[in-house]
Write a structure and sequence with these properties.
CATH architecture: 2-Layer Sandwich
CATH class: Alpha Beta
Distance between the termini: 45 Å
CATH superfamily: Ribonuclease H-like superfamily/Ribonuclease H
Shape: globular
Largest sheet: 5 strands, mixed
Order of helices and strands: EHHEEHEHEHHHHHH
Number of helices: 10
Radius of gyration: 19 Å
Length: about 270
Amino acid sequence: MAEIGWLIFDVEAVADGDLIARVCYPKETLTAAEAIARKRAELLEERGSDFIPYTFMLPISVAIAKVRSDASLEDVVLLDEPDYRPSVITANFWNGWRHYRRPTFVTFNGRGYDLPLMEISAYRYGLSLPDWFNVEAKSFEQSRNRYNISRHFDLMDLMSNFGAARVTGGLNVLSNIIGKPGKTGIDGSQVQDIYDAGGVQEINDYCVCDVLDTYFVFLRSRVLTGHLSLQEEQQRVAQAKELLEKNQDRAAFAHYLKHWGDWQAPEPE
């Protein structure tokens, strides 16, 4: 088995209505659905967005791109497919990290959402993670240290110089710059409504496409930081496309290929 150097992942989640009801509306007898609707309406009025904080969320989709040490793509998997149970997704996520000998996590803005959600999910389900929460190690050696990129490489931190600049357009823009699809269907703001309508598989397909975008942005970041030549990056891109083409029976791969674009090199001056 080839050594896995990175696990590139994305998380989609839905609100825990029972928790919201207990914490936010303890004196009322709201159903889970009513509590979620009330909270979303309040957030929309207060902040202009109905995005519920991760502390009230449950992971119902985690897509992971397994990336070899040479930055080539081995596979993209969905955790606990097709049941997508939050507790099993959480256990599989952390057990998988250990199984592959603790490779580096790669995300886009995962430090602000995805990883904290998976951490609080571990807390919720009673998992022990001393190798991740290595709080007694030296600060710069702790897995959760913001600047320890050997444990977690957040592409938004890289492109924003750790928050000094704003990456307007986010992953969508960075993907489109290099010819990849970006947002082509749903986005994160629609996940709760799609889930409520029974579209769990649609959410998971969307999550896979986000992970593929993140993988190709990661590859270009390796060029930027001098770890890959442009030629090597383009070889990895071609290899990944071939992998997707061989597995077009997967709806997410077929959708991604339908919107595929190639990076256009600048004309020589």
